[in-house]
């Protein structure tokens, strides 16, 4: 009987890993390729990301005196950090990325209690607007990958377009006709099938898989000792704030599903766990981490609300992160295949943000202005990155990213218009806010 229970927990843990796997590997692939990392470095980035996802999940699953929210939450690398990490790495070098992540993590840990007390400053108009901006800012990256990747020699070729649109169509067909758990894996299955088709077309090089070792230990500061630059640090602190806003909605959803009320102290413990996950990501050259919402949907689907399942999922992720060959398989995914999948993901972010905005009272002119100005600036900076080219570099790194600019605008305008007035409550079903991580 005990063995049967263990096998059930293990199988449900595998389901959680499969549900978040696509989102977990996409961030290192997008960042690593944009920074022109070698195949070996990219494989390390994917493997250490999986391992750190597992450790971060453990931190959040167990409720301690100061750490962990004690809900069945799974953590993964945040899409919010993609463009800021690329910008920091391009201007200051890779070590500055990890210096800023460590500093942001320490900031979140220290300010966790403060964040838990001001959570009402992040009503649906802010969360929905921020999520919408994240999707809009990331869509151009997905479109470039559909054509073969930026600076690709065969950019926009018929082969690339056929692959990317084929993956897109496959994902849509699965969403139309598949049911249950298979439907939730549509993006991951689309990537797998697209890569197999690309292999038959001669577009996949398996040499990196053959050369990868079967086992390795995580190496702190793999890309060198971190450097601490004021501009990147402020940028990553803002990224951390946006991550906290996103995760708050997921915590609320898990609380409702598990019939486990949470208070300010619980939120503070959850924020500290995410801050510590940031620090671990910086030390081991991984990523900022947040709570994945598609795994919340899996908790609702399976009706299993125990944290033992996500602890098992964390163990599986740690195991996979110790095997470079597993990570090497992710690095062979062609850009066109990646593009077909990410267009779906990023588009879902936009639609999820719009859905969250349904909770907003748009009869109030102030809410209309918050959304209008924030989306306009966020999308505008993404489309015209040279808008702030004349500003000092330390300031440009902050406002030169559409996600950061738009999110800051939403937060500050909400404070300006609504401070001192009754705040809107958080949406009762915020889980859709991050469906794009599936």
Task: Describe what you observe in this structure.
With 438 residues, the protein is mainly alpha-helical. It contains 19 helices and two strands. The protein has helices at residues 2-34, 39-61, 82-92, 94-110, 112-117, 124-146, 158-177, 180-184, 186-200, 207-211, 230-257, 264-283, 294-302, 307-321, 324-331, 335-356, 365-383, 393-399, 402-418, and strands spanning 75-77, 289-291. It has a two-stranded antiparallel sheet with strand order 1-2. α1 (2-34) crosses α3, α1 packs antiparallel against α13 and α6 (124-146) runs antiparallel to α19 (402-418). The longest helix is centred in the first third of the chain and has 33 residues, at 2-34. It is globular, with a radius of gyration of 20 Å. Pfam families: Xan_ur_permease (PF00860). Keywords: Cell membrane, Membrane, Transmembrane, Transmembrane helix, Transport.
User: Distance N terminus to C terminus?
Assistant: 33 Å
Major β-sheet profile? 2 strands, antiparallel
Structural class: mainly alpha
Principal-axis shape:
globular
What amount of the residues lies in strands? under 5%
Widest sheet, order of strands: 1-2
Give me the Rg, rounded: 20 Å
Number of helices: 19
Helix fraction?
55-70%
Give the topology string: H per helix, E per strand: HHEHHHHHHHHHHEHHHHHHH
- Average pLDDT score: 83
Stretches where pLDDT is under 50 for at least 5 consecutive residues are 423-438
Strand segment tally:
2
How would you describe the oligomerization state of the chains in this entry?
single chain
Transmembrane segments: 12-35, 41-59, 66-88, 94-115, 122-143, 155-174, 181-202, 222-245, 309-330, 336-354, 366-385, 397-417
Subcellular location: Cell membrane
Main location: membrane
Keywords: Cell membrane, Membrane, Transmembrane, Transmembrane helix, Transport
